[in-house]
Design a protein that fits this description.
Blueprint lengths: L16 H4 L26 H17 L4 H15 L2
Length: about 80
């Protein structure tokens, strides 16, 4: 029987290079306000929303009934898979 971990894989795939290098497509794949996932993390034009995302995470942790260390461990478990 398969476990849930056997079905895991990247949820947000990268845009295939053959599409992203086409000049007319250059602006189609970059986020304008918010990024989801690791691909565009740290871009200056997305900094304002990154700050808002941090505030929302803090609020979530405060409202959660779990310890921040436990939440961190759960995220760490899947973060390597998410970046693949």
């Amino acid at each position: 029987m398969r476990t849930n971990s056997q079905f895991r894989g990247p949820k947000i795939p990268k845009v295939p290079r053959m599409l992203s290098v086409i000049e007319v497509n250059k602006d189609c794949y970059d986020p304008l306000k918010v990024s989801v996932g690791p691909y565009h993390h740290g871009k200056p034009e997305l900094k304002e929303m990154e700050n808002i995302k941090l505030m929302m995470v803090r609020q979530f942790v405060q409202q959660s009934e779990e310890l921040v260390e436990d939440l961190h461990d759960k995220v760490a478990e899947v973060s390597n898979e998410a970046g693949q």
